[in-house]
Design goal:
It is built from six helices and no strands. By secondary structure, the protein is an all-alpha fold.
């Protein structure tokens, strides 16, 4: 009976971190829409010869890319939460895989240089991609811990 309680407590903790990660993913995704001006300023600083149309196109491209990544991330969070809620033991593996992918995306957002030699994504938006990874790490640790 004690192991069941520990297992349920661990499952509850994992669900909390999964939903927190989903929320952080939504925040990171919406930030691209909220901070369009900051993203435009970042692009304008890196490409002073760009006109308003080119800057708007670049901002739109980044917004679309971040939106697609955010939607895929949200699907990953919710799918994993469903598996954990249903008590599926295999949920650990996709959670770990999704964390690895998320870390790669966050590192790319922070480090990939544009053709001008500067980091392509505005730093604030890049760092916001890291926040869901922290929740993902907590989730994976909770899912892989042994009960007891």
């Amino acid at each position: 009976m004690v192991n069941i309680r520990c297992k349920n407590r661990r499952r509850h903790g994992a669900l909390v971190t999964l939903y927190a990660g989903a929320g952080l993913t939504v925040v990171a995704t919406l930030a691209a829409f909220v901070d369009r001006a900051g993203l435009a300023d970042h692009i304008r600083a890196g490409y002073p010869a760009y006109g308003p149309g080119e800057i708007d196109s670049a901002v739109t491209a980044y917004t679309v890319i971040l939106s697609v990544l955010g939607a895929l991330g949200l699907l990953g969070w919710l799918g994993t939460a469903w598996a954990v809620r249903m008590g599926k033991g295999w949920a650990r593996r996709p959670a770990g895989g999704l964390l690895a992918v998320a870390i790669c995306v966050a590192l790319a957002a922070l480090t990939v240089q544009d053709t001008n030699g500067e980091v392509g994504l505005a730093p604030l938006l890049g760092w916001l991609q890291v926040l869901p990874c922290a929740a993902g790490l907590a989730t994976v640790v909770l899912l892989w811990r042994r009960p007891g």
